């Protein structure tokens, strides 16, 4: 174990000396696959003096600072009571700004109230920078009267050219109404990182807005969405926001990525008729567009923008495995990324943080068998050094590969997905858990999945399908699922399952389906459509009655929520009932396990109760796990462990393992 790891172990008391074999005991397996990751948000200070990271101690987030030369700890930020560290950013070489979250007794997941603090890497000059002091409690930090503001703040960016200041994006309170952040026009403040004194420098001309900064970190463009779910774009001209018509160049579904180094030019993603989303350079005066990079199968997944200058230099696509396209091959960060891809093969990379001179960077490297390793990269010396492992207790050599797949749906669409096969056994006639993703406007990616790896240890394969409605495959594919949640979307999942069977990988008599949120809906709905295909179905935090979606939960309270629901669900009540599991339990044959949190705002407990009532009325037996303090999903690792244990026994019984 290297010197840095030894010092970190002294701080966190969590390290072991070497990889251990995955234990055969099921409780021990559950523990290693449900425990929180040790480290996150690893960063380097602007001049490279310090390395910082969040570490998890007893499910509490703390912020540690190390001297980058000696690796000696200089300070650890620990809040007291129910408070803990949220996200943070370096604002100059001695100081960070951090968001504070609260662990309230009524809910497992921490709550954020918009409070931002700052502190030096040696623990000195702790200051309450921004927010409304929540609950009037003492914090140990100096609360200045001039920092109190009736708004929720989010760290936006440091200002290297004037490093006593930073940018904070704020959402003014709107009588505390539900979903108010999507209904107000956000503001941008320039804030002194030592005193908290602030100056409002911009107010967005539209709700649900994002400020786009130029290379001097000045707000130059705004993109936002109105209550009709329509996106509008504005440019700051003569100190006024003027709407710009970028669509006149036939570019649809576009969003601004960054400001180009050419005058009056921006980089934006969008698509031309009958094409996939791509990256374009656009002249904001003439509307002329030039396609820069694209992929025939997928949309851009990640835009690589330099942290210090906001310059775009690369685009990442995920057509199965990740691929990289370089916008500016001569950019220093582009050269670094190319070098790193060669130095750490077989991994997906993220440049998390770098010094102002660009010579030192913190790099995250991860793949299907590794949640993430962290490296320090010195481009001047062309040296790279591993410093941390997000889950050092896992040996990648003992874990399963995740392989991309594709097949044709029954109506001729190409559908993509992934399959995780158990390690060390023949990939033939295996039991299977189909695991549809949430959203539905989301997608699965090649990468590490703790649940799939846990199931692989039990000899069970996992199938993930990017069904129609999934993002990333073009707007037409995404919209193909509109008003078809309970039909064509589920057919894609079912067709993918048949594809896996036909490859000889899967035993057709040993298949269950499990998912969370929309994936829970799909689990039960697919089991209704194909009652003989699935031996069991597990729904976690699911929506089970589509007619309730427009009345219950947090989506209707969002500014554009009603417009979105009308678009994706339609308004035909009879069709919504026909696609709702709660109205069709008479078609079920599978064994059912339902898991829900009483604090869920996205799919509230009323969704679970609708299905529960229907199953009870039909005298259809089912199993359940209800968590009093959980929200949308299982945040508490102890609750995740309880769920894994129940899932394991439920699958073992119904798959006859």
From TrEMBL:
Transmembrane residue ranges: none
UniProt xrefs under InterPro entries: AB_hydrolase_fold (IPR029058), Peptidase_S9_cat (IPR001375)
UniProt name for this protein: S9 family peptidase
Keyword field contains Transferase: no
Taxonomic path: Bacteria, Pseudomonadati, Pseudomonadota, Gammaproteobacteria, Alteromonadales
A GO molecular-function descriptor: serine-type endopeptidase activity
Database matches in Gene3D superfamilies: alpha/beta hydrolase
Domain of life: Bacteria
Signal peptide segment: 1-20
GO BP field: proteolysis
Organism: Parashewanella spongiae
Start and end residues of each Peptidase S9 prolyl oligopeptidase catalytic domain: 446-655
Key words of the record: Hydrolase, Signal
